[in-house]
Design a protein that fits this description.
This protein is α/β, with parallel strands linked by helices. Helix content is 27%, strand content 26%.
Length: 184
């Protein structure tokens, strides 16, 4: 079931009108930047978007310019680690083709200092459940961590109900181009 949903949403996202996605990305960025929790945060961790994901490149750059400590993930030995990012140009293509810190710029960060995690995914429901890409990286990273988790997605990635398992970590806020959903 999850695999079928992944394929369906990924196909939809990849085939969606690119100009519309650019417009949606701008609205999603504005919605995030207006969030009081974001405004008041000092340390954020954001995925670095690739392909048709909600674009986080400008969010990361803006956060750095605002003086926030920005942390990004990278993969090593099949695990996810975090590194501080002071300059977007310090990224290079890593595993899966996703931008991650160049080796010489890796500055490890303990996940406990992060106030907000901005998390990717393929599908979400209004209960905060998410379906990622199937590697379980974020579920393992966020396990035992009491921190604000924000999902960025396009409205068409919001589904009525998603299957979830005990190890799945839900998000607290979902931001689309049309709305900000605070999960109860």
């Amino acid at each position: 079931m999850k695999q079928e949903l992944r394929q369906k949403i990924l196909k939809l996202r990849n085939e969606f009108d690119k100009d519309k996605l650019l417009e949606f990305n701008l609205k999603i960025k504005q919605n995030l930047l207006s969030l009081k929790e974001f405004i008041n945060s000092d340390v954020i961790c954001s995925y670095v978007s690739f392909k048709s994901e909600v674009n986080t490149h400008n969010i990361i750059k803006k956060s750095i310019n605002l003086g926030k400590k920005v942390v990004v993930p990278y993969i090593k030995n099949e695990e996810i680690y975090l590194s501080e990012l002071n300059d977007f140009n310090n990224l290079e293509q890593g595993q899966f083709g996703i931008l991650e810190p160049k080796k010489e710029f890796i500055k490890s960060v303990d996940k406990s200092i992060v106030e907000i995690f901005i998390i990717p995914g393929l599908a979400f429901d209004k209960s905060g459940n998410r379906i990622g890409y199937g590697g379980g990286y974020y579920d393992r990273l966020l396990k035992d961590l009491n921190v604000l988790k924000i999902a960025l997605c396009y409205e068409f990635q919001l589904l009525e109900n998603l299957p979830n398992e005990d190890h799945d970590i839900p998000v607290d806020i979902i931001i689309t181009e049309k709305q900000i959903i605070r999960v109860e």
